[in-house]
């Protein structure tokens, strides 16, 4: 981004000085990124050595790679915070995938009381509507279960729930095996369905990418939240106490959104980040996620806007009930602002005056709002490179061959320039010719497809 983007025509000297201060806080030098990458690698090593570290590095019990030649139809359940998807995934044997899916909105009763019965009933509806329910001598259907809540995984198809997050709070489940709870609910309906694999969404994203491109090494979600999974050499996982898999590898769920949550010492915290963290429902947790994921970027921008308004450097000090409310600036508003190149910045004017209800914005107000959006988005994309570089350089021997990184999520897919800025930042630390071997690919809806693929692998081979 050229420096001229940060010059505000018609701005007062005080307004320009405040913008310059924001630029200093949010534009990260390569040296700063390098120091964060070094610390990220150190935290990865800690998580590989022992449980209870800030980067959890959780073994997924997935140790195989699909070849792309597998065929057949497989099933998956993908549980989100607001809805549930049941999928039938058909593999064509040439790396191609066809999906048929049905969404079920989670009821309030499901979120607080009857979740596993609700899931079982949804599976029953999906199968019965398509005449797929096994009868007579037909074999049971194997299903993968994408469950993106904190679990202590104990095998490919078992895991103990640590806590509920994302708006779910079903009593009597914490400390119990979620696969067993679901399997019992399926049995109560007389459904011959076996839950063959418990899958984190990033692990699913990786396996979905790996079916399409066997060189896939990482699966990442850059969306409402962020996390990653990758194939690690099992000999590097010092805390692993099980039998070493024949492949010599294990997919690890990194839970990387928690990076630096214990110390707050390495990420580039500004007063606006600290304020967001302090007022969030999970203070001093998910520090990395709060700087780079879609749930939080709009709120960081709102904090900056209010900071400027409080100094009468934006909107002449005016605000509104909407602007004063947490989460009132959605990250999608930043996307719109970044791409508004109209002479009067009319889309930004619409956001400020109609959506946020702050009347009579000036051209300087709109330019500053755009700069805030650019800075928050660019910092997110450059910081996202930290986890990518740290993970890829953990296994440097792989950088001399093609590596695909499957990425899902709204930030990667929709936020303007996110993909380009991320790739550029990675190239600063993994230069040519190795950077040429790295391919970033969109693994859309990868979590559900990957869960079905893992169920297929688990059924065919003890993974």
Give the structural class. Answer: alpha/beta
Tally of helical runs: 14
Mean pLDDT: 94
CATH architecture level-2 label of the largest domain: 3-Layer(aba) Sandwich
Strand content: 15-25%
- Number of DSSP-assigned strands: 13
> Could you please say which CATH topology of the largest domain applies here?
Hexokinase, domain 1
- The succession of helices and strands, N to C, reads HHEEEEHEEEHEHEEEHHHHHHEHHEH
What oligomeric assembly is this protein in? single chain
Strand order of the largest sheet: 1-11-10-9-12-13
Determine the N-to-C terminus distance.
47 Å
Query: Rounded to an integer, what's the Rg over CA atoms?
Result: 23 Å
**Structural domain tally:** 2
The major β-sheet equals: 6 strands, mixed
The coarse overall form would be globular
- Estimated helix fraction: 40-55%
Q: What is the C-level CATH assignment of the largest domain?
A: Alpha Beta
Residue runs with pLDDT of under 50 for 5 or more positions: none
Domain Hexokinase N-terminal: 19-211
EC number: 2.7.1.-
Domain Hexokinase C-terminal: 217-456
InterPro entries: ATPase_NBD, Hexokinase, Hexokinase_BS, Hexokinase_C, Hexokinase_N
Record the SSE blueprint.
Blueprint: H1 13-26, H2 30-49, E1 58-59, E2 71-79, E3 83-92, E4 97-105, H3 108-129, E5 141-147, E6 151-155, E7 158-161, H4 178-188, E8 193-199, H5 201-212, E9 216-222, E10 226-233, E11 249-253, H6 271-279, H7 287-292, H8 294-310, H9 331-338, H10 346-355, H11 363-392, E12 403-408, H12 410-414, H13 418-429, E13 438-442, H14 446-460
Parallel strand pairs: 2-5, 5-8, 9-12, 12-13
Antiparallel strand pairs: 1-11, 2-3, 3-4, 6-7, 9-10, 10-11
Helix pairs in contact: 1-11, 2-11, 3-4, 5-14, 6-8, 8-9, 8-11, 9-11, 11-13
């Amino acid at each position: 981004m050229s420096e001229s983007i940060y010059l505000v025509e018609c701005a007062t000297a005080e307004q320009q000085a405040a913008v310059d201060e924001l630029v200093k806080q949010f534009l990260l030098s390569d040296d700063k990124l390098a120091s964060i990458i070094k610390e990220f690698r150190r935290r990865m090593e800690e998580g590989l050595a022992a449980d209870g570290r800030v980067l959890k590095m959780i073994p997924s019990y997935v140790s195989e790679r699909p070849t792309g030649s597998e065929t057949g139809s497989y099933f998956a359940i993908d549980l989100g915070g607001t809805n549930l998807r049941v999928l039938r995934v058909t593999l064509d044997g040439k790396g191609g995938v066809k999906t048929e899916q049905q969404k079920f909105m989670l009821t309030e009763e499901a979120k607080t009381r009857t979740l596993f019965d609700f899931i079982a009933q949804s599976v029953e509806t999906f199968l019965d509507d398509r005449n797929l329910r096994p009868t007579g001598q037909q074999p049971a259907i194997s299903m993968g279960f994408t469950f993106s809540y904190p679990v202590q995984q104990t095998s490919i198809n078992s895991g103990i729930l640590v806590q509920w997050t994302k708006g779910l709070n079903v009593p009597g489940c914490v400390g119990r095996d979620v696969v067993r709870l679901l399997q019992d609910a399926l049995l109560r309906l007389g459904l011959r369905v076996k839950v063959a694999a418990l899958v984190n969404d990033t692990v699913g994203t990786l396996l979905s990418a790996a079916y399409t491109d066997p060189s896939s090494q990482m699966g990442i979600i850059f969306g409402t939240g962020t996390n990653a999974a990758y194939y690690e050499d099992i000999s590097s996982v010092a805390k692993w106490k099980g039998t070493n898999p024949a492949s010599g590898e294990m997919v690890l769920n990194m839970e990387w959104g928690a990076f630096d949550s214990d110390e707050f010492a390495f990420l580039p915290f500004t007063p606006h980040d600290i304020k967001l963290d302090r007022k969030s429902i999970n203070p001093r947790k998910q520090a990395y996620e709060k700087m780079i994921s879609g749930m939080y970027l709009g709120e960081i921008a709102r904090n900056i806007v209010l900071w400027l308004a409080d100094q009468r450097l934006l909107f002449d000090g005016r605000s509104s009930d909407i602007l004063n409310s947490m989460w009132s600036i959605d990250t999608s508003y930043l996307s719109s602002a970044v791409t508004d190149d109209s002479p009067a910045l009319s889309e930004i004017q619409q956001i400020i005056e109609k959506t946020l209800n702050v009347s009579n914005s000036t051209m300087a107000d709109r330019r500053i709002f755009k700069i805030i959006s650019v800075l928050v988005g660019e910092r997110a994309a450059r910081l996202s490179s930290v986890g990518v570089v740290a993970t890829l350089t953990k296994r440097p021997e792989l950088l001399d061959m093609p590596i695909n990184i499957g990425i899902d999520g709204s930030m990667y897919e929709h936020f303007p320039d996110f993909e380009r800025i991320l790739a550029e930042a990675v190239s600063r630390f993994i230069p040519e010719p190795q950077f040429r071997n790295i391919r970033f690919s969109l693994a859309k809806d990868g979590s559900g497809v990957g869960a079905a693929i893992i169920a297929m692998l688990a059924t065919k081979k003890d993974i």
